[in-house]
Amino acid sequence: MNWRAIKAIVRRDLLAVVRSKGVMLPMILVPLILLIAIPAGLGRFGPALSQMPGANMPDIEGLLSQMPETLLAQFAGYTTDQILIVFTLLYMLAPMFLILPLMVASVVAADSFAGEKERKTLEALIYTPTTDLELFTGKVISAWLPAMLVSLVGFVCYGITVNVAAWPTMERIFFPNATWLVLVFWVAPGAAALGLGATVLVSSRVNSFQEANQIAGVIVLPIVILVVAQATGAMYLSVGLTAALGVVIWLIAGVLLWVGVRTFRRSEIIARY
Amino acid sequence: MNTSPVIVTHGLTRRFGDITAVDSLDLTVRAGEVLGFLGHNGSGKTTTVRLLNGVLAATAGSARVLGLDPGVAGAELRRRTGVLTETPSLDERLTASENLTLFAQLYGVAEADVAGRVAELLETFQLAERAADRVSGFSKGMKQRLALARALLHKPELLFLDEPTSGLDPVSTRQVHTIIRDLSRNGGHTVFLCTHNLEEAQRLCDRVAVLEHGRLMALGTPAELAHSLWHGVRLEIEVAPQATETALDVLLAFPDARDVAQMENQPVLTVALPTREHIPQLAARLVAANAPLYRLTPQEPTLEDVYFALHGHEEVQS
């Protein structure tokens, strides 16, 4: 493997991403809303909102009755307001965090694979001495790295936001817990790989960034199901379950990337040019 | 000049479903020459470039480029070839300098030499002042020059230029022509020039290959092709200024004369005749029409004459 060439492709793709408003905008806006605005509001005003007439907040007593013993132990000694905060910010929003690596990897991969076809910049790359595998690896890394960077920065911002916003209610630092650490350092990298694996496959069949991005966006659906499952008490992301979820995500991502690398052939790409 | 072949193909064929893009191509390109690869749009020129660089697999036949089999040693081969694609294929979000730096690294230019080589090429192609500007703000001519600079970063032995002046204004076209001539004469590069611009091919190429529906119709120097394939004669006729209209009428009425034209604001006419034997007859008619004849000069046949002679032949065959 020619790592110098791979690094050059990564550097080029990242530079191009930073200079593209269409790619950068969702990468900035979505984390701002998901990891700062929403948790700040819930952390600061959640308990007060829950007591407003007509508020549609989770039925804490009902949820507690469905929780496994190990999870219940984490709420020992908490007031109802504190339980509401911990439940919402530590558990309910946890799967939403996964949207970040998925979306960022997907957007950047769509720009890097389908967008490059659309801009007709791929042909010059194809005539270089890089191998198909080197080209593919460079493009995959250049989508995976920003996804991880945004996830890690987002995690830190989320941690600061929820601890500060909920301080009046919690009066202690309660974030992160073990589940979040597994989520950030094991599941999120897999989610990023899943997002880009799906987008690579879609990109090989479409010719524009928008098409690739829209079709690959369907990959977010399982995350929405997870959020709903937690909110309704159907399941809870314990450390073990989160780790197992990570294994499944990595396996699917591995299969998608394996198929992707096998279909990324310059002779096939150029024949469709 | 080293005349050993850098490209040799035997029966090289590429099919896309029912369509044969390149059909049993037998071709030899010598080191240091500029070979014009002529043909209409869709005649198979670009597909041939792709086959010869190992980015597209051949359906049948064989090719050796710089001694290598493109289908087997594509990556190794592309280290020694440079390609100017039909569209500049530049990343418009990057600057001129960033575009060249990326490709210098991809082509394996030593890290210590990258900055110097990029600066040198930007200077050569008169882009040094715009080195730090994004390509999105460049004119078409500037983009084409930058793409040409990119193809030369690694000092390739063999250069493929696919329609290098397509869509360029006359000034940019002349700049690109000068660069190509310099590359061949002073740089020792072998140039494989795909074009449908016959004037360009006549001006720049040592030999030309004419491609039609993926098949090689003719190969040789423009003069060789002209003499073997076009047996007509093109004449330049100077008459007394007051007799220009009369002479024009005589030419237009002359049997088998074609391409009759008058040079702008001059009493000079041009005409193409089927054979040399028609010249005395034409001269006699001009004299009989009282058009004072000052000069009658046979011209060398052009590549255009050859091209249309071949095209006509093809149409007759089909």
Write the layout of secondary structure elements.
The complex is a heterodimer of chains A (273) and B (318).
Chain A: H1 3-18, H2 21-50, H3 60-66, H4 69-72, H5 80-92, H6 94-97, H7 99-119, H8 122-126, H9 132-165, H10 167-170, H11 178-203, H12 209-216, H13 221-231, H14 239-263, H15 266-271
Chain B: E1 5-16, E2 19-30, E3 34-38, H1 45-52, E4 60-65, H2 74-78, E5 81-84, H3 96-106, H4 111-124, H5 140-152, E6 158-162, H6 170-185, E7 190-195, H7 198-204, E8 207-212, E9 215-220, H8 222-229, E10 233-239, H9 244-253, E11 258-262, E12 268-273, H10 278-288, E13 293-299, H11 303-317
Parallel strand pairs in B: 3-7, 3-8, 5-6, 6-7
Antiparallel strand pairs in B: 1-2, 1-4, 8-9, 10-12, 10-13, 11-12
What does this entry look like structurally?
Chain A has 15 helices and no strands. In chain A, 78% of the residues lie in helices and 0% in strands. Chain A has 273 residues and is mostly helical. The model of chain A has no long low-confidence stretch (mean pLDDT 86). With 318 residues, chain B is of the alpha/beta class. The two termini of chain B are 40 Å apart. Chain B has a 6-stranded mixed β-sheet with strand order 5-6-7-3-8-9, with helices on both faces. In chain B, strands 11-12-10-13 form a 4-stranded antiparallel β-sheet, with helices on one face. Chain B has helices at residues 45-52, 74-78, 96-106, 111-124, 140-152, 170-185, 198-204, 222-229, 244-253, 278-288, 303-317; strands spanning 5-16, 19-30, 34-38, 60-65, 81-84, 158-162, 190-195, 207-212, 215-220, 233-239, 258-262, 268-273, 293-299. The radius of gyration of chain B is 23 Å and the shape is globular. Chain B folds into 2 domains: 5-227, 3-Layer(aba) Sandwich (Rossmann fold); 231-300, Alpha-Beta Plaits (2-Layer Sandwich). At the A-B interface, helix 1, helix 8 and helix 15 of A face helix 2 and helix 3 of B.
